[in-house]
Amino acid sequence: MRSSSSDQAGRSCVPHYLGDLLGVTGLLLLLPLLLLVFPPLAREDVGAWVFLVPAFLAASAGMLLKTLFPRGTPTLKEALVITGLGWLLISAAGSLPFVLGLHKAPVDALFESVSGFTTTGITIFEGLDEMPASILLWRSLIQWLGGLGILTFFLAVSVGGGGAAASLFGAEGHKVELPRPVPGIHHTVKILWGIYTLFTAACFLAFLAGGMTPFDALNHCLTCLSTGGFSTHDESIAFFASHGYRHSVFIEYAASFFMLLGGMNFLLHYKVLSGDPAALFRDFEARRFFLVLAGAVLILTGDHLLHVSGKVPVTLEEAHETFRAALFQASSLITSTGYATKDINAPFFPALSRQVFFLLMIVGGCVGSTAGGIKIFRAGVLARLFRSRIFKATSPQGTVAPVVVNGKILPEGEILRIAALFFAWLLLIVLGAGITAAFSDLDPWQSLSGMTSAVGNMGPFYFSVHKMAGLSPVIKLTYVFGMLAGRLEIIPVAILFTRAAWRR
């Protein structure tokens, strides 16, 4: 007798869960319509049909799939297929308002949607300051939904506990064994989304206190905690200083604080909120996260003062401005948010600073966060692995040199998984950079930065948004693949290209 209900029915349960995801997406597409009832800005908006049509199509397709195919407990393979296809289908549905409301080409709309849901933040849309409010809100909302993961949101609002939830959570979650705050997947997901929502609300209030309009505060709190980086302005966070906002400095510091919260492990947040603030100092990854951040800020500040200011000592005001810019940009890049107060291509950041930015884009934030990149945890494990190999090579024969993290020996299987993921991550970047160089006039450094930004779910890159918007569809689709692979940590996307994924 077969073990799962889908096997008993003789049909896969994959389409049923894809239908569930499309149904939830159809409901979410209705949320921007609230702005048509309560317009926040005196600007022209799109018609309700721009969201009603995609919502109807997504909900109808979802209902059809749920009716025709059985529900069951997915196997690991099925869960990975659901994850890979689910993110692609939801991104496709989420792109329709950009096609209908902004008349964007389907490839450009899909690119922007995938960039939003994966919280990459690479945008090919210009003229954000004049863009319809409901479209801007949709861009921000999809980043917030993608922050902790579309499937985790689905699990929080629809699926209960049990094997199905465990399979889907494991397929989308970061591929590192982490303790759960409470027993049961459903309760764990609800706690994570509760913390995420609490921090988002606090960020909204902080931005309001800084003088943002309610609409700007809403959009930026959604994209700040999700470390996505979409803004309602072409200048990003720099808009508020350049337009004379009285508390623009407070806004920058508040954004830095909440970006860093989003870039940290949310299970660590749970420990701190549960009365154990010392966990921040005991945690292997958190210590290294703040050490890397502090080192980056120190280098960026010193590099500017020595090579741009050209004089030491400087005035207190100059030192503060440089430190603030360094802290903001380092926080933005290590968390993969991509907000900017200074253009990373500007002379304000000399050559060494740009190399530091590139390293931050590779490393990224913490496991279990909304940030992208390889993750501090994995970089730390690989560093310890290297040190253990040196120790073993210089010690008597038979010496055991395990990799110890947080007082526990890391299993060999976990180390191999990290090494394999790191190799695949770098391979994707190299291949994508080659495709970029072959189909554009970008130089090698720019080509490398573009694909690194996509796979790392980062946002910033070393050429202009206008240039990105004009790239070949081949490059854009390559970046779409890179963004999805980076967000889902490669395996759920890679498995879609194997015969085994489509074999019963």
Shape: globular
Number of strands: 2
Give the fraction of residues assigned to helices: 55-70%
Q: Can you give the mean pLDDT?
A: 86
Give the biggest sheet.
Answer: 2 strands, antiparallel
- Terminal CA distance reads 16 Å
**Helix and strand succession?**
HHHHHHHHHHHHHHHHHHHEEHHHHH
Number of helices: 24
| Oligomer classification | single chain
Supply Rg: 23 Å
Strand order of the largest sheet: 1-2
Please state the structural category. mainly alpha
Strand content: under 5%
Report the uncertain regions: 1-9
Architecture overview:
- The structure is a single chain.
- This protein is mainly α and 504 residues long.
- The protein has 24 helices and two strands.
- It has a two-stranded antiparallel sheet.
- Helix 4 (49-68) packs antiparallel against helix 5 (76-102) and helix 6 packs parallel to helix 23 (473-487).
- It is globular.
